[in-house]
């Protein structure tokens, strides 16, 4: 099962980047090419039947599988980045993180009005980051087609808070 394989591969780093945070390190997944392919296969299977025009991946670990998935689905990938990184005209939104705060940006031409956007990140913690991403997508007139995460920290209950935007929340492994 993909969830068991991911559980085995993901490495817990205690007190990173701050005391009290258990960081879920996905770099061992990236070293395993066939597991990366299985991750993309699992996303494709679970998103079967969802109409998606664009995948928006969140800096920086949301770029890794986000681009692979978009490429597999033969649809555009657009990066959501921290303020000051994107070179073209942007829209911006503040976000609260599990360990800090930031402003996220998206290029104004990344999404056309009416496009159905899958928001992707490596991990769902409190949901602050994807909430800001959701507001960026909506600012450009996009519709949220769903959310896809490799990991969900279910004990933080973010899925319940996201459901009013989209019930379509795909996660491959959950930690309680
Ligand atoms: P949140 O906004 O609280 O849902 O946090 C999600 C974002 O922070 C994602 O971009 C994650 O990569 C990162 N993140 C938050 N908590 C962790 C964690 N425990 N381990 C790894 N990444 C995390």
Fraction in helix: 25-40%
Residue share in β-strands: 35-45%
Q: Got a strand count?
A: 9
CATH topology: Rossmann fold
Averaged pLDDT, please? 96
Structural class: alpha/beta
Number of helices: 6
**Elements, N to C (H/E):** HEEHHEHEEEEHEHE
Level-1 CATH class name: Alpha Beta
Short note summarizing the structure:
Helices cover 31% and strands 35% of the residues.
Describe the fold and architecture.
The chain is α/β, with parallel strands linked by helices and 176 residues long. It has a single domain, classed as Rossmann fold, CATH 3.40.50.2020. The protein is built from 6 helices and 9 strands; from the N terminus they run αββααβαββββαβαβ. The strands form 2 sheets. Strands 5-6-4-3-7-8-9 form a 7-stranded mixed β-sheet, with helices on both faces. Helix 3 crosses helix 4. The longest helix has 14 residues, at 33-46. The chain is globular. Residues 21-24, 58, 61, 97-98, 121-129, 158 line the site of adenosine monophosphate.
Layout of SSEs?
Layout (H helix, E strand, L loop, with lengths): L1 H8 L1 E4 L7 E4 L1 H4 L2 H14 L7 E5 L3 H12 L3 E6 L7 E8 L2 E8 L8 E9 L3 H12 L3 E11 L4 H5 L6 E7 L1
Helix pairs in contact: 3-4
Which properties best describe this structure?
176 residues; alpha/beta; Rossmann fold; seven-stranded mixed sheet; two-stranded antiparallel ribbon; globular; binds adenosine monophosphate
């Amino acid at each position: 099962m993909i969830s068991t394989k991911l559980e085995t591969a993901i490495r817990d780093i205690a007190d990173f980047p701050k005391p009290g945070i258990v960081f879920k390190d996905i770099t061992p997944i990236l070293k395993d090419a066939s597991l990366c392919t299985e991750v993309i296969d699992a996303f494709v299977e679970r998103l079967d039947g969802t109409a998606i025009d664009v995948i928006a991946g969140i800096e920086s670990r949301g770029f890794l599988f986000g681009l692979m998935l978009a490429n597999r689905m033969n649809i555009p990938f657009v990066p959501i980045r921290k303020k000051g990184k994107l070179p073209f005209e942007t829209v911006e939104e503040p976000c609260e993180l599990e360990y800090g705060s930031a402003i996220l940006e998206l290029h104004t031409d990344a999404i056309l009005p009416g496009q159905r956007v899958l928001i992707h990140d490596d991990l769902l913690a409190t949901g602050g980051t994807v909430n800001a991403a959701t507001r960026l997508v909506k600012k450009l007139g996009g519709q949220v087609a769903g959310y896809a995460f490799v990991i969900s920290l279910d004990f933080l209950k973010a899925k319940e808070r996201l459901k009013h935007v989209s019930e379509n929340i795909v996660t491959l492994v959950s930690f309680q």
